[in-house]
Every structure is written in C-alpha cells, then in structure tokens.
Amino acid sequence: MGRTYVMGDIHGAYKALRKCLDRAGFDYEHDRLIALGDVCDGWPQTFECIEELLKIKNLVYILGNHDWWTLEWMTSGILDPAWFHQGGEATVNSYSDKVPERHIRFLSDARLYFELDRKLFVHAGFDPKFPIQEQSMETLLWDRRLARLAIDSFPAGVDFKLTSYDEVYLGHTPIAQNIPMHSGDIWLMDTGAGWSGALSMMDINTKEVFTSGTVPILYPGVKGRQRFS
C-alpha cells in the first residue's frame, strides 16, 4: 500500500477530480483514496466521475446523501423533485443511455463509514455520545451538528476533542475556504466543489493538501447547483 488520501464531495466535477489526482501524483495501483461521498449531482459529469473512481484499485467510497438519492433514481426510475432540483438534473443528463450496472453496484456497495487506525471517515456526521455502529443512516448521511460544532469551535484551534477518535473526517457541510478546516479532532473536507468553491484531497499522514482550484472556472457557462429557499 502506498499513500492514503481523503477527498471531499465531488458533485459531478470530473475536471476537478482529475486535477486533484494529477496534482497529488496519485498512483491508481498502489495509493488509497477514501472518498467521503456525493460524487453525484451538481456539475455535468457524474458519469465520468464514477468511471474514474472505478479505475482506482484501493478505493474506499463512503455513501453520501446525494448518492442515496441518485441510487434511488437508478434503481426505480423515479425522479424525486427535491433531488432533481438539488443537482439531480445534471446527473440524469450525464447518462445519455441506460445507467451501467457497474455504476449501480458502485453506489450500492458504498460504505456508511470507515474506520482506520482510530480515524473515522463518514459523509455527514454522527452523535459522539453513541458508538458509530448504533448510528442511523439518516444521521450518517445528513446530520450537520458535529460539523457545525467544529466550525463554531474553530477559533479555539486544534487542542481539544469533540469525539473519542483521534481524527474524524467529514464531508457534506461546505466550508467558506478552499482548503480543509481542522478544528479539534475534526477535519471538514467539503471545500465547496458543489457550489463555487474547490475540490480538495489530503494525504492523511502528511496533511499535504491538493486542490482543483475554483470549480466554476473549470465549467464556464455551466450553471451548476442552485440554492432554493
């Protein structure tokens, strides 16, 4: 096994995904990538993103809430209006033909969380008062309370703990900076690739960060996800 990287929410931004992997000099055969979910929805290349991730031999893919929505569409054909207007339309349009079975398997086989050497990787969050094995899928895919607590605690630095893990890596909650935020034992990895920010990946041992640069610049003229009140 080579190096181990963690990556935030991709949201259909294939060009950003490739920039991060290329800038890190990622080895598809020997390095490991832990992707925190939401490969789907937003930018127009969900199909290409999944194809690229399938090339990685040592991939750990964590299920995100947008992945769950997308999988529902892939397996039932039903378009959830909330999903469709929160980036799902771009995902549907990225499949010009029938969804390949390998893409359905990719999302179906995604993990809800991953533990490695007292580090936890999960899409949205969890309740630190209870073991990770007891958390509901809704909490793991949607709950922002831990991420918001980390953001509120950010001015205090890193010398405090919010969980029993040495490090916790979260996606789902975008932050207003183009590099991951380290607050206590929490790393917030969603640097806004699904909106107007960047995609980030980080070596979990050296903490070296590789970013795509601002994603909308990579997709000139493409509207991307729209916020709804």
TrEMBL record:
<dbReference type="GO" id="GO:0008803">
    <property type="term" value="F:bis(5'-nucleosyl)-tetraphosphatase (symmetrical) activity"/>
</dbReference>
<dbReference type="InterPro" id="IPR029052">
    <property type="entry name" value="Metallo-depent_PP-like"/>
</dbReference>
<dbReference type="GO" id="GO:0005737">
    <property type="term" value="C:cytoplasm"/>
</dbReference>
<feature type="domain" description="Calcineurin-like phosphoesterase">
    <location>
        <begin position="3"/>
        <end position="127"/>
    </location>
</feature>
<dbReference type="GO" id="GO:0016791">
    <property type="term" value="F:phosphatase activity"/>
</dbReference>
<protein>
    <submittedName>
        <fullName>Phosphoesterase</fullName>
    </submittedName>
</protein>
<dbReference type="InterPro" id="IPR004843">
    <property type="entry name" value="Calcineurin-like_PHP"/>
</dbReference>
<dbReference type="Pfam" id="PF00149">
    <property type="entry name" value="Metallophos"/>
</dbReference>
<dbReference type="GO" id="GO:0110154">
    <property type="term" value="P:RNA decapping"/>
</dbReference>
<dbReference type="InterPro" id="IPR050126">
    <property type="entry name" value="Ap4A_hydrolase"/>
</dbReference>
